[in-house]
Amino acid sequence: MSNKALRLGTRRSRLAMAQSGQVADAVSQVTGRPVELVEITTYGDTSREHLAQIGGTGVFVTALRDALLRGEVDFAVHSLKDLPTAQPADLVLAAFPVREDPRDVIVARDALKFTDLPRGARIGTGSPRRMAQLNAYARTHGLDMETVPIRGNVDTRIGYVRDGELDAVALAAAGLNRIGRIDEVTDFLSVDTVLPAPGQGALAIECAADNAALIAALGELDDPFTRAAVTAERSLLAALEAGCSAPVGALADLLADGQIVKEMRLRGVVGTTDGSRMVQLSTTGPVPETYDGAMALGRELATEMLAQGAAGLMGERAQ
């Protein structure tokens, strides 16, 4: 490889710039080449509509992928949960670095925990998945709370709480960690309460499929356990034919005996946004050692969920 600077395509949001900057440093270390950030505005950044209305899937990704295909950037960094499950043939996901905390969190007024929120509490979220599970939890535990759809960056969302418009907002731990604001979290939501989005907390580094030297270099940042887990989660999402704005939660985690990883457990949930009906299942098996093995784990769980009526809970199935 030459010593010419590599161009990293990134969204302009503070979070995207932060996580792209962290990847740029790591890529620079493994390649010995400088990395420059190329800021790209996506439709999801400029639209003021709710994600569910603009079709969630790919709204933050298309412009980055177009820049890659045109050769304007050498590689791109995506939040994996924003990435459609169908992969273009001429692009490759060269690395999934070690995953951040996949959990959801709340930032609430008066440093309140989730279970201490007052009767009638209003919780803001832009995610049908979080709405479905928070409402289901409230129903089963006799809590009186309302989920309110919101959009905007982290500052905007936390601002609703600071201004007294909402009692709390639900966000991803990983994003707050990456921008250095995890200390504002008032409660971490257990994955037993709210399963995260498939791929939440993970980044995907994408480049052209014909750039073998760059694929090999980026591959040094790949974490095999993260890859196996998120591949299984995204396989479940794809087999449910759900887009990334559908109310689907999934998490694959490793079950260890002491220091030895024995198995992988995949959990999935889908529900109506009002929380009145949910299908939640899990499966456990050997840690997949191949892409096909991880894909099979997700498909198997999706088949069981569909058999229990999952399709009818997702509203319009994303195409």
- Rg is 19 Å
Strand content: 15-25%
Can you count the helices? 9
State the distance separating the first and last CA atoms: 40 Å
Count of distinct strands = 13
Which structural class do the helices and strands define?
A: alpha/beta
So what's the overall shape? globular
Helical content (DSSP H or I, runs of 4+): 25-40%
Give the integer mean of the pLDDT values: 89
Detail the poorly predicted runs.
Answer: 50-57
Q: What order do the helices and strands follow?
A: EHEHHEEEEHEHEHEEHHEEEH
Task: Report the sheet with the most strands, covering strand number, pairing sense and barrel closure.
Answer: 5 strands, mixed
Q: How are the strands of the biggest sheet laid out side by side?
A: 2-1-3-10-4
Task: Tell me the layout of helices and strands.
Elements: E1 6-10, H1 14-31, E2 35-39, H2 43-46, H3 62-69, E3 75-79, E4 91-95, E5 104-108, E6 121-125, H4 128-140, E7 145-149, H5 154-162, E8 168-172, H6 173-178, E9 187-188, E10 203-208, H7 212-218, H8 224-239, E11 248-257, E12 260-271, E13 278-286, H9 291-307
Parallel strand pairs: 1-2, 1-3, 6-7, 6-8
Antiparallel strand pairs: 3-10, 4-10, 5-8, 5-9, 11-12, 12-13
Helix pairs in contact: 8-9
